[in-house]
Specification:
Helicase, Ruva Protein, domain 3; 3 domains; globular; 5 strands; Rossmann fold; five-stranded parallel sheet; alpha/beta
Length: about 300
């Protein structure tokens, strides 16, 4: 059996892999053999020989194969993996960042056990958060789940950890406990910062920037997050779904940015990018300290 688990939703892939492992252990007990192989470390010839070998002391094997795309196998090697994996070997190929242009993806996506794990929509993510809270023995309503997502971000890993933390604090999750305990994501903070920049609210921008610095974020991380937010604004203005997909911008991010682009055009974004580039160059060349460059950038964008 060959399973190909691919897609951008690494959390869902991890959960599915955990389920596969638990089912395998439940079925085989001590009669099974479970191992993880890194395709980069193993090498193609050794990997194919390993997959084609029949187990000697166990009834079956479960092999989780990682980094296969990074090993850049040829079509011949891909065919050998698909054709020569022994019947007693359950092969699970993990691909969290599939490149759909490659021969590898085109070959593996055709196997019977291929499953794509996409990033959930906002509605799906909200429903998932409610289920996750229930699993943790807590109560959470839809409105508060949406607020938590806005604060923490769309990462299911982060949301899982935050919900577990909130549930252990109080099984009745409230707005007050979320505000007190949940850790805002850099993406969320950067969105609020970008909103203040678009509104040209310099005092608020400076306050938000100082807050990010107190949280331990370096200037280059903050600048990168600002660049991402302005890229989202640019894509919202262009309004091309194919470009959104190419840049891996979620529908939720574009929908959230819609109110910010009213009155903006591509020239505005282009001008902002120029100022951002100048701040970045000033920092990297040592012409200004990173803090001086950031403050100068904020002043320029707001004026």
């Amino acid at each position: 059996m060959i399973l190909y688990l691919y897609g951008e939703n690494s959390y869902a892939i991890s959960r599915q892999l955990s389920l596969i492992k638990s089912q395998y252990i439940k079925k085989t007990g001590s009669e099974g053999d479970m191992q993880t192989i890194d395709a980069l470390e193993q090498g193609s010839d050794s990997l194919i020989a390993n997959l084609s070998a029949m187990p000697m002391f166990v009834s079956s094997r479960l092999i989780v194969l990682t980094n296969l795309p990074k090993s850049k196998p040829s079509q011949k090697q891909i065919d050998a993996i698909l054709q020569n994996t022994s019947e007693s070997t359950n092969l699970v190929i993990i691909d969290p960042n599939p490149d759909k242009r490659t021969t590898l993806y085109k070959s593996l996506s055709k196997v019977k056990g291929a499953t794509e794990f996409r990033r959930p929509s906002r509605v799906e993510l909200t429903k998932w958060a409610l289920v996750e809270a229930h699993r943790a023995g807590a109560t959470l309503d839809s409105q508060l789940a949406g607020y938590l997502i806005d604060l923490v971000g769309e990462s299911q890993w982060s949301l899982h950890n935050e919900i577990a933390k909130l549930a252990s604090y109080n099984s009745d999750i409230s707005r007050a406990s979320v505000d007190e305990l949940a850790t805002p994501s850099l993406e969320n903070n950067a969105f609020i910062l970008a909103e203040a920049l678009v509104r040209k609210d310099l005092p608020r921008v400076i306050k938000l920037y100082k807050s990010l610095k107190l949280q331990g974020y370096a200037d280059q991380m903050i600048l990168g997050a600002i660049i991402y937010q302005f890229r989202v604004l640019m894509l919202v203005i262009i309004n091309n779904p194919q470009l959104n997909q190419a840049y891996k911008i979620s529908p939720y991010s574009t929908q959230k940015a819609l109110p910010l682009v009213k009155g903006l055009d591509i020239e505005d974004i282009s001008g902002a990018y120029q100022l951002i580039a100048e701040a970045d160059i000033a920092t990297k060349t040592g012409a200004l300290s990173s803090e001086e460059a950031m403050n100068g950038l904020f002043y320029s964008l707001c004026n």
